[in-house]
Amino acid sequence: MLRGAAAGAGAVGALGLLGSATATAAAPAAATTGVRTRSRRFAGKVVLITGGTSGIGEATARGFASAGAKVAFCGRRTERGRAVERDIRRSGGEATYLPADVRVPAEVKRFVDRSVERYGRLDIAFNNAGIQVQKPLHETSVAEWDDTTDTNARGVFLAMKYQIPHLLAGGGGQIIVNSSVGAVVGRPGLSLYQSSKQAVLALVKSAALEYGSRGVRVNAVLPGITDTAMIRPPGLDDATWERAKTALGKLNVDGLGTVADPEHIATAVLAMAGDEFGYLTGVALPVDGGIAAGRRMLLPES
């Protein structure tokens, strides 16, 4: 099974980027170092994040904390979670890591309840945890299907199930779900991942209608190809990865031609959570460099 970083090996290998002429493309500009925020605009808010120990979840946790929010986040990698917690606190933010597996109902409930107990309320939830399997559909095992849907779809359901009562008790709030641009466009070899991400869009739309009149907004963000362990092969040195990533963006992102940094997605999540978007609900927002817009037409050479 290709999970997390392992999925990247197939993506890069399929492009022939390792040791090929394509890999000689110029390296991109340095990645952004953090989410740009207006000072303390989330002061007094309590934010819960699933899958917050790396990638988009970690970048979002750091972004909310730097903007004044109290952040509780979960994940399965305890050592990594504690390190992120310490780093946020050293930077002057407030964050608490709590170990939890979103596939396990009791652990999700405990994460939500303990977070609210610690910080006194819940205002914003970012349900982000996810995994990826990359292989042809007919070669996929039932166990891989179950694990992917249990994490990506059932995990979101469980988080929302236990978050919504606290949001209602506090007079409202919002939930943002990390789906994927793969929910609206197809990719060979990613049928499990993309079907699970399509499922959460139905949850978002229905929940937005169920709870909007009670002050709870529910939206989804649809990241495109993003520089996380989900696409980067493990053990690949930084210089080789930067060349591969440049080629990956040029080949697959027809709009902006680059791979996103996690901070690009985190910045969008913070924007959606702000008061400026107080009339936004039931929406799936692509943050994908133009992938959802379509592909350019390629003509044969004469």
TrEMBL record:
Signal peptide per UniProt: 1-25
Domain Ketoreductase: 45-228
InterPro entries in the record: KR_dom, NAD(P)-bd_dom_sf, SDR_fam
Gene Ontology molecular-function annotations: oxidoreductase activity
Assigned keywords, A-Z: Oxidoreductase, Signal
Source organism, top-level taxon: Bacteria
Keyword hit for Oxidoreductase: yes
Record-stated family: Belongs to the short-chain dehydrogenases/reductases (SDR) family.
PANTHER family xref list: BLR0893 PROTEIN, DEHYDROGENASES, SHORT CHAIN
Name the record gives this protein: SDR family oxidoreductase
Lineage: Bacteria, Bacillati, Actinomycetota, Actinomycetes, Kitasatosporales
